[in-house]
Amino acid sequence: MKIIAGVDEVGRGSLIGPVYAAAVILNKSINKKLLKDSKSLTKNKREELDKYIKENSIWAVGRASTKEIEKINILHASLLAMKRAILKLNKKPFLVLIDGNKLPDLKNYKLKYVIKGDQKIPSISAASIVAKVSRDKFITKLSKQFNNYGWDTNSGYGTKEHLRAIKKLGITKHHRKTFSPISDLL
């Protein structure tokens, strides 16, 4: 049987922190009907499915740091996080299906992008869930140190609450300085 991996990233639009990507090879026994785009699921359902996916799949997570995002831009950082996730898989897939319309630079791998793949391809849906839960755990931990920004609920996205906190408290080392409105404040 030809092994297929699904890949997705999360955190591109956030104003803070790393961008995460996951690569997932589903076991045949997994119930694909349960897998949906992470954005369409509640936090509890995502966490439940994350555990289920990890128990019934080969999976890996990659990330690109805030500094890398600032240096090479968010698109290239997302592709780098995807490449890292793919390379961490303990089995080499025959084909890698990637959500979006761009491919990471990866030699000796057969790669194909799928627009809206997180809504169409179960392994990409699974990757979106694993990436989202992984990043959310990291951001929740970070929010304990920087508890006035609401990161535990807004994941660092530019909500009114987060933007008010930036104006009042300033930016942190975790804010992406090349992103507007952060760049406008510098």
SS-based structural class? alpha/beta
CATH superfamily: Ribonuclease H-like superfamily/Ribonuclease H
Strand order of the largest sheet: 3-2-1-4-5
Listing every helix as H and every strand as E from the N terminus to the C terminus, the arrangement reads EEHEHHEEHHHHH
CATH architectural label = 2-Layer Sandwich
Give the percentage of residues in beta strands. 15-25%
Number of helices: 8
Uncertain stretches: none
Q: What general outline do the C-alpha atoms trace?
A: globular
Number of domains: 1
Cα gyration radius (Å): 17 Å
Query: What is the name of the CATH class?
Result: Alpha Beta
Helix fraction by DSSP (H/I, runs of at least 4):
40-55%
Largest sheet: 5 strands, mixed
Distance between the first and last residues' Cα: 53 Å
Topology at a glance:
Elements: E1 4-10, E2 19-26, H1 43-55, E3 57-64, H2 66-72, H3 74-88, E4 95-99, E5 111-114, H4 117-120, H5 122-145, H6 151-154, H7 160-169, H8 182-185
Parallel strand pairs: 1-4, 4-5
Antiparallel strand pairs: 1-2, 2-3
Helix pairs in contact: 1-5, 2-3
